[in-house]
Amino acid sequence: MILKRSAEIGPAVDRPEPERRFYLFHGPDEAGSRALGARLLAALGADKFALPAAAVREDPASLPDEAGAMALFGGPRVIWIEPAGEDIAEGVAALLAAPAVESVVVAIAGALKKGGALLKLVESHRAALGFASYAPEGRDAVRMVIALGRGEGLTIDPALAERIADETGGNQAIAAGEVAKYALYLDCSPDRPRPLTDEVVDLLGCGSEGDSQRLGDLAFDGDMAALLEEIERSGLAAKDGVAVLRALQRRLLTVIPLRARMAAGESASGVMTSAGRAIFWKDQELVKRLLRIWPPERLARLVERTAEVEKALMLSDVPEVASVGEHLVAVARVALRRR
């Protein structure tokens, strides 16, 4: 079953039906998807058990086996797959066909292709539930920031909430982190509320994750001058380097399926129109350029090389942060030649 309306998904995760065994939370707002998964965990009173998507892909029977196994220390648990994609479809089919399971399975995915095997499975089976999360825009984004502030004891006026929403790209997870940071600085709580001001936001800045996304986007877009200036300004550390690489990977996950549809014969305008709210409105012009600049084979190589750089950075005893900057510059050079 696929739910379309936000008003429907809340009750479905807060009061889960006993026969439901698979939940697919997908779409561009991964923070929103994780929040739904967290609500389901709380409703079930369960612990999270992470299962890699690669394990399900390599052995589809492992998913129903794991879901059917009793928890080692007792108590309910939720099998959590993140990031998930079409490669787990065979395992999900086996899960839905199993006679019984002990644990619910939650999959967190990015944007999925309409008509794909995974969505078809969820749509056709009563024991499965799917919902697509989109980053809030406009007034919805402002309301989201105001609500986050209220939960932390901050009173945020609409104009400042709009600024925070814009600077965090409408990403709920980044906005929540920023709001929590401001609340900590102001030493406030729901029972000791305080107003948030532009001066506090100016003082603390609006998020390294936003900076990370900007660095990745500048490289991907081939804006060499701005990229070099931003690298100099930000002063990458090991943690920041990983964040930048992951921001670049998130943008790749948005562009690759759209570019593949263009390679199959669809027009750029048609692809962008059909994507609709899957792309944050402020990012639409950037994504249009990226679709023009990057052919599918270059995107595939960029995915591989970015993963290699991240792996080397994370496994090194003394992380070579310079490799992140070198990678970004190399990406920008490729894009610049094709602009």
Structure description:
- With 339 residues, the chain is an alpha/beta fold.
- 61% of the residues lie in helices and 10% in strands.
- It contains 17 helices and eight strands.
- The protein has helices at 6-14, 30-44, 53-58, 62-68, 89-97, 117-124, 138-152, 158-167, 172-186, 198-204, 208-221, 224-234, 238-263, 268-275, 284-293, 296-315, 322-338, and strands at 2-3, 22-26, 47-50, 77-84, 104-109, 128-132, 154-155, 194-195.
- Strands 1-6-2-5-4-3 form a six-stranded parallel β-sheet, with helices on both faces.
- Helix 5 links the parallel strand 4 and strand 5.
- It is globular and about 60 Å long.
- The mean pLDDT is 86.
Shape, per Cα inertia axes: globular
Strand order of the largest sheet: 1-6-2-5-4-3
Sketch the topology as an H/E string, one letter per element: EHEHEHHEHEHEHEHHEHHHHHHHH
* Helical content (DSSP H or I, runs of 4+): 55-70%
Distance between the termini: 43 Å
**Major pleated sheet:** 6 strands, parallel
| Total number of helices | 17
| Total beta strand runs | 8
Strand percentage: 5-15%
Task: Kindly name the structural category.
Answer: alpha/beta
The low-confidence parts are: none
Radius of gyration: 21 Å
Mean pLDDT over the full residue set: 86
